[in-house]
Amino acid sequence: MSQPKVLIAFYSRSGVTEALANAVAEGARASGAEVRLRRARELVSAEVMALAPGWAEQAAALNAKYEAPTEADAEWADAIIFGTPTRFGAVTSELKAYIDSLGGLWFQGKLNGKAGSVFGSSSTPHGGNESTLISLYNPLAHLGLIIVPLGYADPSLFKSGTPYGASAVSGNPPAPPTADDLEVANFQGRRVAFVARALKAAHITETKAS
């Protein structure tokens, strides 16, 4: 059977969520998955970005490394993993705009049965990681994805992360995710790839039977 295909669509400004995304990708690839890493784009004007020192420069550097996520990426994937910093306890507008763009695929039922999972970061402890991840479960359900939480299925979850998805607390100024944070993210990639492979096999079997 062909390897599962995993789309990791994320938004990152300082590089913290990007680091988690890459650890998720490493875990998925280690489980034999083909991975596409995509960064959602800014929605605000250059004038607004200029109000936060370094934002425009960081965005340009990240956009040079990663393509923007597209509808075609979501259709291609067997699993979709969303990653976002928390903004006032919820998903960033940049990533939400990408999720909202998937309405056409939703209407056609083309996302039904794919695996879905989430990860995120905040700048302060109790700064919204869990509420952000749980809030992302709502669009996953509406899109028809089969939600893959982490639970406590790996020893790494007793050191870091959440049962809802990998996470990191960066501080201010932001520091990179810890080794424990990245271990959870790596496990998430492996777990989602495993579930995506099983779902893909079940779909192939069901299709042949019908």
UniProtKB/TrEMBL annotation:
Pfam families (UniProt xref): FMN_red (PF03358)
Gene3D superfamilies: 3.40.50.360
Keywords per UniProt: Flavoprotein, FMN
Ranges of residues in domain Flavodoxin-like: 6-192
Ranges annotated as spanning the membrane: none
UniProt xrefs under InterPro entries: Flavodoxin/NO_synth, Flavoprotein-like_sf, Flavoprotein_WrbA-like, FMN_Rdtase-like_dom
NCBIfam families reported in the protein's UniProt record: flav_wrbA, PRK03767.1
UniProt record similarity statement: Belongs to the WrbA family.
Protein name: TrpR-binding protein WrbA
